Model the fold of this input.
Amino acid sequence: MRTEQPTPLADVRETAAATAVAHPNIALIKYWGKSDEKLFLPRTDSLSMTLSVFPTATRVRLAPDAEQDTVVFNGLPATGEAERRIVAFLDLVRERAGRPVRAVVDTENTVPTGAGLASSASGFAALAVAASAAYGLGLDARGLSRLARRGSGSASRSIFGGFAVWHAGTPDAGPEEADARSYAEPVDAAGLDPALVVAVVNAGPKEVSSRTAMRRTMDTSPLYEPWAESSKADLADMRAALKRADLEAVGEIAERNALGMHATMLAARPAVRYMSPASLTVIDSVLQLRRDGVPAYVTMDAGPNVKVLCRRVDTDRVASVVREAAAGGSVHVAVPGPGARLLDEGV
Ligand code: DP6
Done:
């Protein structure tokens, strides 16, 4: 990340810059499907754990003389869809701030490329915090969560550390009310000592984006509504399991919710299948771990990589089994991580 030299204090407002850091999160109760695509309102509530690894750092610097935004991603200019999404997000921030000034966005992402670790979650959470500070929106954590949601739904949860629930809100209310009520907030999980072992079995780009896949699933899968309905019960059970720090129950509920989500996609027309033979090999190794008495549970997102929830004390054993199963792939260990935060603010 480049650090700008301080400029003279001619007009601090117009040279404002801010840097923020955020971490990815992995959902234990999944977000899959929107009730409003423009506002990024989810069809169901979801619940996640923010990770301790793979932070994204983003600097937003206002550029009063520029006619366009500049977006730099890991030192290279962003192009195509990635750039379009960031500029659209900045447009939203500008509209709210009532300040048309363009910006330079410089992002350093430490997620290994294609690790399936929701880099859009850490990316838009960091961007929301940095852009909100640079444009002077003065948002609290809830406001930042609502803003981050408009970049990528799952980013609403990365504003918070540890465990967070993202409320679907009231999609049937008018757009303003619905928008106001869909945000994430922290969930207490004191006493739980979890780790997430991430097996990257394929680092290549996915064929169908999660955005497209969730739309197709909602539109065509006969299994979607039953899953969405059962997800409500999963969330209630998950909250109770977190409260009593019951890792086995947390893992079982997370696993059934994720596999159910993948079932909805398999039943979409045409089917969306993210699981590969390598994913199944890892899943089988986790089932074997369970038969051997180690509580370990899988979850998967819009990609073939497998995340394994276990007790922190079992991490070495789980990681070594998963590493062997994910032959040739890489394995990373995360524990609950911090929420998004501002690193510096000024000129
Ligand atoms: C499978 O948040 O990436 O990871 O809101 O369209 O940007 P958009 O989608 P995104 O979807 C994440 C889907 C998921 C499940 C989850 O994180 O809850």
The CA atoms of residues 186 and 252 lie 21 Å apart. The chain has two domains: 6-189, 194-334. Residues 1-14 have pLDDT under 50 and may be disordered.
